């Protein structure tokens, strides 16, 4: 059934446990993601970015997802990832997303507070959960400017004033695939965890060593965002398939190994987080 971040994260807050939040990049991958979660009996946070909405269409994403979610045996959150435009975030709430991220992390603090509050005021009466970000998780390529770390006192005040349901923090991760192993600032996370009462979110979790993924779940991280580590094996599977089958031109045959590689990567992350009850 359809769920919000509160439905799936609140019970994990004081446990060393987290849920994977996986990006679905196009319509066809949505049923594969849901099937993967069902086979592991794992609660699912399915994330959709603006780029996906532009390609696939918001109504198509919602109608396909809702049809599958209604029939599913596991709680599924359909979450708009990294919404930067207030009107667009509101449109996603209106369209049927059960959860949204408003990402004002590049804005001055006061502006981030103001806009996040506006989204919370819009979302809450509709029963939609809101994630926001304080500090800024950058990208490996450096695109979009430098990352800045989350200040614990800042995070505490931000969470209190905005009343968000979940808070993304910056503790050394980046979006994309790292050139070197990232070094997480666990002491900073511990101090954020002591001061912030809402479930915390780790963005840029692709490429973070397994031990660190497990470690952060003990200090308030309840949602682990994974996109690049799904896209990379998807693309590699296509390259491998085409090398072995250079004359194949049936899209379904070319996509099949890519879907399998995506599902395998999702299941591995779910198992790492302890969600492998059907295995
Ligand atoms: P990665 O690029 O590390 O997978 O990060 C994903 C993410 O944070 C999505 O919001
Ligand atoms: Zn992110
Ligand atoms: Na990453």
UniProtKB/TrEMBL annotation:
It is an enzyme of class 4 (lyase). SUPFAM superfamilies: Aldolase. Its EC number is 4.1.2.40. GO terms for molecular function: tagatose-bisphosphate aldolase activity. Its cofactor is Zn(2+). The keyword Lyase applies. Keywords: Lyase. It holds the Pfam family F_bP_aldolase. It comes from the Bacteria. PANTHER family: D-TAGATOSE-1,6-BISPHOSPHATE ALDOLASE, D-TAGATOSE-1,6-BISPHOSPHATE ALDOLASE SUBUNIT GATY-RELATED. It comes from Scopulibacillus daqui. This is Tagatose 1,6-diphosphate aldolase GatY/KbaY.
